[in-house]
Every structure is written in structure tokens, then in C-alpha cells.
Amino acid sequence: MKKYDAVIAGYICVDLIPEFKKNRLFTSISDVLQPGKLIEIGNLNFILGGIVANTGMAMKKFSKKIYLNGVIGDDFIGKIVRERLDEVELSEGIKTIKNCGTAFSFVIAPPGIDRIFLESLGCSNIFDRSYINYDVIAQSRLFHFGYPPLFEHFYRNKGDQLIKMFSKIQGMDVVTSLDFSLPDAESESAKVNWPEILQEVLPFIDIFVPSLEEALLIMMPYEYAQIHSFSQDTDMIDKISLDTIRKLGRKIIDFGAKVVLLKSGHQGAYLFTSDISSINEKHVLNLKETWNHRELWCNAYPVNNNKIKNSSGAGDTSVAAFLSAILDGEGPDASLKYAAIAGRNNLYCYDIYNELNNWSDMTKEMRSETNEIINISLLKESEFSAINKITTKEEVIDAK
User: Fold this and answer.
1) Each residue of 266-316: pLDDT tens digit?
2) 44-49 sheet: strands from edge to edge
3) Helical H runs in 20-151?
């Protein structure tokens, strides 16, 4: 028996989110950010963010025993983090670094427009594997880490620290899991050869849970650049073909990951797996054979626009439900549905711990809402495009 179900390590911050009026929809960010223009807003919400807070608090809400492993500064924002985590009894593993600022972000999320993040990394710039609590991890069933692009010590020197950390933990009979974030295009992490790093680290990763856009950028940068250039006025994932998604999933599996969840916003989530017997050999999970060699898609659950409060952290909450389902021994279909519905329910919350449905209520909700799991290896490209209203560059050229 292990003391903890999961250790959640890596990035933690405070999201500062101005509240826009719900009865006003914007069509472009230029409608909001114009020199000399005044836009009246509501409250400024202070919400814990990053994988450590979001995934950690959600998994505790889902009745899992969680230990958080991250760093904050000794500034005012750090005090907000400490007080909030004290309230939910999750602050034990959070280190305070003196004379250093806590990571924070301004999340600009006007209704009708995708979010914009203005991020200050704070003390994350000094976070390295010396802050990882291996003793506690050894007492846990699962280790979940994110996000490498925000930690320079984990992507420098060809990801040497990231590789060594996961290599060590992989040998501790602990299931390993990795989440990602989009590198800032102007940052040092954007210049990193991520495919080269991932080819070295993914053999030590059991579960990999990036977003579809993140995975495309770090695994297939040339294809990402092509699709991105064609997606200036629309959400990029609406331009990614089924063939590209399948190639991407298989490439990650070929690099060594055993279970791959691609979070895809309003498209739901995709699941790719290889042989998962090596995960079961750690004797902390009991995954059924139905997990072996799957290519599945769960579309997003319908959203009540009148209930939406906040879209920040939806991916982290989705991962929390996915990992919790795996820890419970659920099959791939149910785990994928839990991920999709938890991501949807996150939209209705400012405070994940107090407002998010607990596991029992979410299970009842999931069973009452129909959402088919689709085997995408049997799905035709035309069927996929019709469901998601995808128009590829080639189809536009043909139409002309």
C-alpha cells in the first residue's frame, strides 16, 4: 500500500482574471485591446493556477490522496497561494523561496474569444530536480509533472534534468505522467528541439497528456507551422485533419509513451495506447486488457453558455479526472468520458475545490448524458470533417 495516490509536481501560479460582462460577445481581440478605449469589467478574480494547483485540487476533490510538489515566492501572491492551499490541506510540499516572486498570469478571456495569457514565471526560473521530493514520490502510486517549457532547468542541455528525473522515478515502481504547455514563440523554450528531447524522455513516460495543439507543435513542428499559418482567424484545432491526429498519436506512442491523452477543447479528447502491461507490472494499477492498442475519440459534452464562469484550467481538470479514473481501474472508454465531462464542468467554476462536482455526482451526470466513444481507426476522414466542420487548406484550394 502506498501513502499517496499521486504526487503532482511542477508549475504553480496565481491567475488574475478580470471578469467581462456575459451579455457582451467580442469577435476579435482588437475589440478589447485598443489604445484609448475603455472596457468596463467586473471583479478581478484571484485563482490558483498551473498544474500543481489545478490538477492537484481537482484530484483531491475526486477523493484521491494528493501531495503537491512546487515552489512559490515570499511575496504577496505567494501568501495567497499558501493560505488557499492551507485551507484545503495541500500546502505541505510547497516550498517558499525567499527574495523571489511567485509565478502569476493575467488571463484575458473576453466572451467569444480564446484566452490570452500574460505570464510571469517568477521563482519557476530556479525550479529544478533538486526540488523534487523523491522520498514522497516513492510512497505514491503515480507521479505527474508539468510544464517543461516553463522551467529552463528542465529544457536546457537537451532536457538532461527532465530525462534524469523521469528515468529515476520510472525505476521506483511509480507510474509516470507528463503534461505540457505551449512555449512562448519569443522565448528560449521555443527554440528548443522538443522532438529530440521527447524522443529521449518519452520511454520513461507511462501517461502523456498534452493538448492537441501542444503535441503537434512539439512533435511535428513543420506540420504545426503549416496548419497555424492557415488558422489565423479560427481555432487551430478545427484545421487539423483526422489523418494528422492519428499520425501524431502513433508517433508519440512510437517514441515510448504507453497512454496518450490529447486534450482538444470543444472537440473533446483523443486517446492512443500501446501495450500497457509494463504499467501493470509496477503493481500499483490494475488496467484491463481493453487498454491495449486503442485509438479512441470522445467528443466534448454540450456546454450551457449561461453557466460559463471561467475557461482557465479546464485541461488540468480534465487530466485530473482521467488520472483519477485510471487510479480507480476504469477502462479506456470511461476514463476518456471522465476527462471530457470534467473539462466541461471546469467551465462552470471559479473555485475548483468548492464548485466542481465531486466524483459521485460527476459519475451520475456522465451516465445521464449520452456521448459515444468512437474508434477513430474505423472513422473516415469525410465523416470526421463533417462532424467537426473542418476545412483543410487542400479543400479550400480545390474549392477555388
Assistant:
1) 899 999 999 999 999 999 998 999 999 999 999 999 999 888 887 778 999
2) 44-49, 13-18, 104-108, 116-120
3) 50-61, 76-87, 134-137
